Amino acid sequence: MENLKKTDPEIAELVGAEASRQRSKLRLIPSENYVSSAVLEVSGSVLTNKYSEGYAKKRYYEGQQYIDQIELLAIRRAKALFGSESANVQPYSGSPANLAVYYAFARPGDPIMGLALDHGGHLTHGWGVSITGDFFTPIRYELHPETHLIDYDMVRDLARKHRPKVIMAGATAYPRIIDFEIFASIAKEVEAILCVDMAHIAGLVAGGAHPSPVPHADVVTTTTHKSLRGPRGGMILMKKAHRKAINKAVFPGLQGGPHNHTTAGIAVALKEAATDEFKTYAHKIVENAKHLAGALKDKGFDLVSGGTDNHLVLVDVTKRGTTGKPFAKALDLAGIVCNYNTVPFDPRPPMDPSGVRLGTPALTSRGMGTAEMDKLADWMNRVADNVENETALSQIAKEVEELCDGFPAPGIPA
Ligand code: DSN
User: Whose CA is nearest to atom 1 of ligand 1?
Assistant: First the structure.
């Protein structure tokens, strides 16, 4: 970043500090990752200079000789990787992608259905403070109070009663496999559009480590920067029958010009995701998450639903005598970065809930495996015993940094 250093040393220094934070800590936020150097390069390329409202061969600006090829390549790769009939690679991220789906199939005030945020859903699945819960009529399904699995009977009953235009399946804090077939049968029965938001699990789906929603859903939305390991962006996969409606909703419905540097980054990430190496990575994410879950259980941590089938573990820390926020803060001081999170039926407020959310994609991208998960569980146990002991926490941070030194972070020079 020689030029940046000359032009804006303040920002250059902060970027450098962030790089070293990402290198020296264990990053467990399940929606974060390390992109490859190739993705970083193209994300910072001259493609950011170009406007290209519209779609390939039908743009509102000239000079699209190369942009069209890039976008068509990204679309072709998305379709091939996920086996979908059509793809739109222009959404700026997951939230606009979801909004585009509602905009395509519902009018203001219409009922839409999604998993409640405090049961593991997402703001854009119809939560009240989001435009999706404000402009539409949100119907929220929940988890079963005993199993903490999606209450499919509740989904069916609510769908029959409210006849939503769109049923959203997908989650940000659900450690189990979602049964897309049941969702599809419910959507079919009530003539709703089934949209699966696979943002968290897209990399697992691409690598064959999680069942694919694509055969079952009318539309699948995703971000591209989580387990899929691309740049920050969004994508919508859909059946051919919905292509026109979705494309119109994305542009001109919601967005202006696509971010071409991101589109190219998505294309590169999709190429990487089609390799055997990526398949191995996807399976290792799940292996690591399961191993971490087992090791934490052995240390006396309570896990929502008792474990995991995917990339994340939701830990209820109540029995360890702490709550989500102070525990997450203590972990951060110890070099272990996660986020505090509600657990199902949480009696505590969202700003200091009962749990923390842990994910293994970023650690797996660094090549860490089950031995490192054991160490991580040990450290988390020590942190739980020392939430307010800064000396103990900084000792753990040193040990964490030593471990990190042995596992180069993709895209970040040593
Ligand atoms: N912010 C993302 C997450 O952490 O799950 C969801 O968009």
Answer: 31
* Tokens matching residue 363: 């650690």
- pLDDT for 229 equals 98
Residue 87: which residues within 8 A CB-CB, separation 6 or more? 74, 75, 78, 79, 235, 236, 237, 238
**Active-site residue, 61 included:** no
The answer to whether residue 299 scores a pLDDT higher than 90 is yes
Percent of the chain predicted with pLDDT > 90 = 100
CATH tag, 40-273? 3.40.640.10
Mean pLDDT over each residue of the chain, to the nearest integer: 98
Round to whole Å and give the CA distance between 396 and 390. Answer: 10
- Residue 226 annotated as catalytic: yes
Distance 56 CA to ligand 1 centre (A): 30
pLDDT digits (tens, 9 = 90+) for 90-133: 999 999 999 999 999 999 999 999 999 999 999 999 999 999 99
The overall pTM is greater than 0.90? yes
Burial letters 292-325, b for 16+ CB under 10 A, else e: bbbbbbeeebbbbbebbbbbbbbbbbbebebbbb
Query: What CATH number is given for 276-405 in this structure?
Result: 3.90.1150.10
Give the model's pLDDT for residue 414.
Answer: 85
Ligand 1 atom nearest 93 alpha carbon: 7
The answer to whether 23 is a known catalytic residue is: no
Residues with CB under 6 A from ligand 1: 31, 94, 122, 172
User: In the numeric block, which tokens belong to residue 42?
Assistant: 């193209």
pLDDT value of position 218 = 98
Based on the residue annotation, tell me whether 319 is a catalytic residue of this protein.
no
Spatial strand order in the sheet of 312-316: 302-303, 312-316, 355-359, 339-341
For the chain, the structural domain boundaries read 40-273, 276-405
Task: Report the pLDDT averaged over residues 329-349.
Answer: 98
User: Tell me, what DSSP letter sits at residue 336?
Assistant: E
Q: What residue's CA is closest to ligand 1, atom 3?
A: 31
